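Can't paste images in this forum, so I'm doing it all in text. The chain is below; anyone willing to post the predicted structure tokens underneath?
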Amino acid sequence: MTALEALIFDVDGTLADTERDGHRVAFNQAFSDAGLDWNWDTVLYGKLLKISGGKERMSRYMADKGDQHLLNTNPTLISDLHGAKNLLYSEMLQHGRISLRPGVRRLLSDARDAGLRLAIATTTSRVNVIELLQQTLHPEALSWFEVIATADEIPDKKPSPAVYEYVIDKMQLKKENCLAFEDSENGLMSTHMAGIETIVTVNDYTGNGNYAPALLVLSDLGEPGKPFEIMGGKAAGFIRNRYTYVNVELLRNLQRIGQSHI
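Text version of the structure:
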């Protein structure tokens, strides 16, 4: 049985609650600034999140709305809107309007102290990842992660396993030596197809998903004195009444449990 070596993190919805009051708000402002009558309320945005990637969401929405004709006069409309949205999202980060989820900062620090290797596997754009890490963690936070794989490097969006396969290959790791952190069904499907055991921390949009393959499904990573809620997962019975927040000891035990299921 091999030891835990690395932790691989999704970004949006996993490291921080970026979607409902971050990306969604920035999208709507970009639409308004461009003179479009598009508006994504919280319910609609939740449905659109089933589609990985901001450009892909806009393309689907445009098709459903019957607005493809807009591309006749502005073929770069989707990419232009996405660029504008990213700038607005960056401003939100700089003004402290988006924060990390419970337990994220603590766990990253503890994992580094324990010598675990860290990586990012996301289908959002690199500029968004850089802004989030630098504004919410530390100006030097990029150096904490051995590999940062984004939509800029891997165009195949989740649930494709491509971004996780890329990370594993770049770090020269075996999948059984890693644990992944996700927040959604698409994310879990991606890790599952890549053969990586996964902890899911759900959010407002993803709480009702099917997470049967997950090692653990939690409300968040928890903090001392602010316990997580256990919502399911193959290892739920093991940790119940033993742990109240995710730490390195728990992760090492989860990785061993995961190997026993391989």
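The longest strand covers residues 117-121. The chain has a mean pLDDT of 95.
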